[in-house]
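Reminder to self: tokens first, then the designed residues, so the page reads top to bottom the way the pipeline ran.
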């Protein structure tokens, strides 16, 4: 049986944790006199978009509070996205907490001044639990979700679909107007236009991806006749962005991609991001979790919960794979920037899931 090679850890920051800890302590003292930030750490799972710091507050009232801080990406670190709007994320989390029973961490402070830590950030309470791993992915042997029983995984799957259903149904669209994307046309047309602009930013001065451009063209062939009403989308709707207490969601994280869009944008992302890990695992000779987060079951359960049956899912899963490809291309060019990789003759080879994306474009994937 083949095993996936362990790649060197990618550089995720150019900041020094010790310096961040010192500056955080100074900032905290100005907002909670007598408080001290202790046990400041950067988690190993820190992403390449916004960064996370974990710390405890030592203070008489309360005596100890576990916190997490989301810090906008360091511009010097060849950022994954062009803009990091921390007030927007902070406002989104408060909106979800106010209007739904979707579990989100309680936000404590928002700092829009980049002075204290070098970029805007917000602080939220830290929620205990466990997250399905990305590295190595949860579809690979040797982690808590893979070792769980079929019944336990089925419970986690159902609970996660219920999160999507409640989010889409419970947030009044009028209250989420600040998440509407700029541009002309409906919410879906604006969403796709924003992804085209993101792709143009990624390849500016660099080799373009024929595969990604063919996927954009295929979207036009599959465009839904009826986009449906726009709802608040989580954006990065996947189980790797959920803290679970046992197999029940305890906190939904990472709202930087939240927007107003058709429900299927979130559903397609949930379906495809699991397929991404599943396909990767199979390519290394393991079976993965082929019966977990199956597309037809997610669609059926979502319809039962909301009365809305997901439609045009070939479009939306292709769109999810396309969006993920643009992110993967940016990650690859980031590696090139830091001397961790070189650009091959075929830039499509930089996209880890280029084979599955090509199959979707050809209509032979599902």
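Designed residues (366 positions):
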């Amino acid at each position: 049986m083949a095993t996936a090679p362990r790649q060197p850890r990618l550089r995720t920051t150019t900041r020094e944790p010790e310096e961040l800890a010192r500056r955080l302590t100074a900032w905290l003292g100005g907002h909670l006199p007598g408080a001290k930030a202790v046990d400041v750490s950067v988690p190993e799972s820190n992403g390449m978009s916004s960064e996370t710091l974990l710390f405890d507050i030592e203070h008489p009232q309360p005596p100890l509070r576990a916190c997490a801080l989301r810090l906008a990406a360091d511009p010097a670190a060849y950022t994954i996205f062009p803009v990091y709007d921390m007030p927007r994320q902070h406002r989104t989390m408060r909106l979800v907490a106010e209007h739904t029973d979707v579990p989100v961490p309680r936000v404590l402070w928002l700092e829009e001044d980049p002075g204290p830590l070098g970029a805007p950030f917000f602080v939220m309470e830290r929620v205990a639990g466990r997250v399905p791993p990305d590295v190595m992915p949860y579809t690979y042997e040797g982690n808590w979700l893979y070792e769980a029983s079929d019944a336990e995984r089925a419970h986690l799957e159902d609970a996660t679909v219920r999160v999507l259903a409640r989010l889409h149904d419970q947030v009044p669209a009028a209250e989420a107007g600040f998440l509407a994307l700029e541009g002309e046309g409906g919410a879906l047309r604006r969403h796709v236009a924003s992804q085209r602009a993101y792709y143009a930013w990624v390849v500016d001065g660099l080799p373009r991806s024929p595969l990604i451009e063919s996927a954009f063209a295929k979207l036009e062939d599959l465009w839904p006749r009826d986009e449906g009403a726009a709802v608040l989308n989580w954006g990065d709707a996947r189980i790797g962005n959920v803290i679970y207490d046992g197999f029940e969601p305890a906190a939904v994280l990472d709202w930087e991609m939240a927007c107003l869009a058709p429900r299927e944008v979130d559903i397609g992302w949930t379906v495809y991001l699991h397929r991404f890990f599943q396909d990767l695992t199979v390519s290394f000779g393991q079976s993965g979790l082929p019966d977990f987060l199956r597309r037809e079951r997610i669609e059926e359960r979502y319809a039962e919960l909301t009365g809305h049956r997901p439609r045009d899912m070939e479009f939306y899963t292709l769109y999810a794979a396309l969006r993920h490809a643009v992110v993967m291309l940016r990650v690859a060019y980031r590696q090139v920037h830091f001397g961790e990789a070189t650009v091959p003759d075929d830039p499509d080879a930089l996209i880890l899931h280029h084979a599955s994306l090509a199959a979707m474009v050809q209509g032979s994937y599902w």
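The chain has a mean pLDDT of 92.
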